[in-house]
Protein: Ribosome hibernation promoting factor
Organism: Niveispirillum cyanobacteriorum
Amino acid sequence: MQVTVKGKQLDVGDALRTHVKDQLASMVGKYFGNPMEATVILSKDAHLYKADIQVHVGRGILLQSNAEATEPYPAFDEAADRVAKRLRRYKRRLKDHHERTTLNQLPVQAARKYILEAEADSDDYAADEAPAPEGNGHHGMVVAEMETSIEMLTVSDAVMRMDLGELPALMFRNRAHGGLNMIYRRADGNIGWVDPAGAAGSVKQ
């Protein structure tokens, strides 16, 4: 596995870089024989060090984790431990998911996603602002635009991906009926599931 270690406002020495690469490769290698790549960004903000980890372990499977500590080694070790816990939790399902997607390449819908500038406190709207895409009812400026994809998944696989990637929400096409669905993290810790097709409760995932 290719592991890239970067420092942000921090000089990553050889010892720390080696520690990160060895620990991550060993940890992920327990569950995947041929993981794709990983990126670790170590940064410092005031008195705290932060470690951000991204690991691509297969088609569409992204693990993300981060942690902070007063020293860089504990920050990375805590973030890596969170990755390891999720890998253990989903070990069997990840293996099954990999086999399913390898044997049956499910359709993927191309899409675009936008990042909109947060609404200001003022009620005034500047006429010269570039509007967001037509029809979305939001007057904020588009500050970023990028390509993405909407995959065909079961609800349980979608929940797994959201958990592995520490995502707040995930849109997908429900394999049961092909319609667009959304899952999201609720404030009470549970997972919300929006199924406009009305198939929820009638189809076992």
User: Anything to note?
Assistant: The domain at 2-93 is CATH 3.30.160.100 (Double Stranded RNA Binding Domain). The first strand starts at residue 2 and ends at 8. The CA atoms of residues 67 and 139 lie 35 Å apart. DSSP finds four helices and nine strands in the chain.
